[in-house]
From TrEMBL:
Coiled-coil ranges from the UniProt annotation: none
Organism this protein belongs to: Microbispora hainanensis
Family matches, as InterPro entries: ATPase_AAA-3, CbbQ/NirQ/NorQ/GpvN, ChlI/MoxR_AAA_lid, P-loop_NTPase
UniProt entry tagged with the keyword RNA-binding: no
Domain ATPase AAA-3: 51-180
Similarity section: Belongs to the MoxR family.
Domain ChlI/MoxR AAA lid: 244-308
The name this protein goes by in its record: MoxR family ATPase
Length: 326
């Protein structure tokens, strides 16, 4: 039977996606050793048009991961070092009076880039953190009543230290909900740490990195991911999975409808990176913890039992019936 042009085009787009994603992944892994799962999830969030929160103790490579992704793509990149005295206008931009033209001119802030790296986001006040709310959700910034659109693709990669660390503020619930996924770097394996001493000991590998993909290529990949098929049973499975967090007695706050949308978008990207043009329940199961856990608030009893949101999500996923249909 002859293959239709649509099927051929879709197959070609999927091959191009996998090839470009492989180049980006190899570029990042030349700097980040022994963290293939973390790198894959980072690329998944990029292709899902999402934002990534990286939480872990200092010194494990959070900022290095964010900068490695940024340098792998030939696009405008801006970095914001969050500090207690940082103001919202330092992020979004400000209207300044021009003495020559006698008019106010808008001076764009660092959010006007394709990739924004926010370093130690929870060291700034909640007021400053909230400056990212509009741009992360609506891809626009409003200053003095004027709205400015942000160019696509747009991704915020923020790092934060655990809230137990000195000088940190907890992220507001609305801020956490706008991050598609949260990951932890974790300590490297001894072999990876030994290799790190060889690679990083004599030089800075970030300085040698060259872009392996363009903004146009990433935009095309995102379009290809949007076309990945999600059946009704799989959509229902995603809804049931998120709804389970809202009815759990172990949680004071369940996941929002935005979480359902982020879960399905991420599953599309995960399926495409796996060489499929359709989503299966396994995609949702693998992404449930990084996509849902950071949005949840455990009950006081669960906190007393030291049960973390990641553990609670894993328990809920195991209880939700899995659909048979593809």
């Amino acid at each position: 039977m002859a293959v239709t042009p649509d099927v051929t085009d879709a197959s070609a787009r999927l091959e191009d996606l996998i090839d470009t994603a492989h180049r980006i992944r190899a570029s990042i892994e030349s700097v980040i050793e022994g963290k293939s799962d973390v790198v894959r999830l980072t690329i998944t969030v990029l292709l899902a048009e999402g934002h990534l929160l990286i939480e872990d103790v200092p010194g494990v490579g959070k900022t290095m991961l964010a900068k490695a992704l940024a340098r792998s793509i030939d696009c405008p990149v801006k970095r914001v070092q969050f500090t207690p005295d940082l103001l919202p206008s330092d992020i979004t931009g400000v209207s300044a009076y021009n003495q020559q033209t006698r008019e106010f001119e808008f001076k764009p802030g660092p959010v006007f880039a394709n990739i924004v790296v926010g370093d130690e986001i929870n060291r700034a006040s909640p007021k400053t953190q909230s400056a990212l709310l509009e741009c992360m959700e609506e891809h626009q910034v409003t200053v003095d009543g004027v709205t400015y659109a942000l160019e696509a693709p747009f991704m915020v990669i923020a790092t934060q230290n655990p809230i137990e660390m000195e000088g940190t503020y907890p992220l507001p619930e609305a801020q956490r909900d706008r991050f598609t996924a949260k990951i932890a770097m974790g300590y490297p394996e001894p072999a990876a740490e030994l290799e790190m001493l060889d690679v990083h000991g004599a030089s800075q590998p970030l300085d040698k990195m060259e872009p392996v993909a363009t903004t146009a290529e990433v935009a095309a990949l995102i379009e290809a991911v949007r076309a990945v098929y999600v059946s009704q049973p799989v959509k229902r499975y995603a809804v049931d999975m998120v709804a389970a967090t809202r009815h759990s007695p172990d949680l004071r706050l369940g996941a929002s409808p935005r979480a359902t949308l982020h879960l399905v978008r991420s599953a599309r990207a995960h399926a495409a990176l796996s060489g499929r043009d359709y989503v299966i329940p396994d995609d949702l199961q693998e992404l449930a913890v990084p996509v849902l856990a950071h949005r949840l608030l455990p009950s006081l009893e669960a906190q007393g039992q030291r049960r973390r949101p990641e553990q609670l999500v894993g328990e809920l996923v195991r209880r939700v019936p899995v659909p048979d249909a593809k």
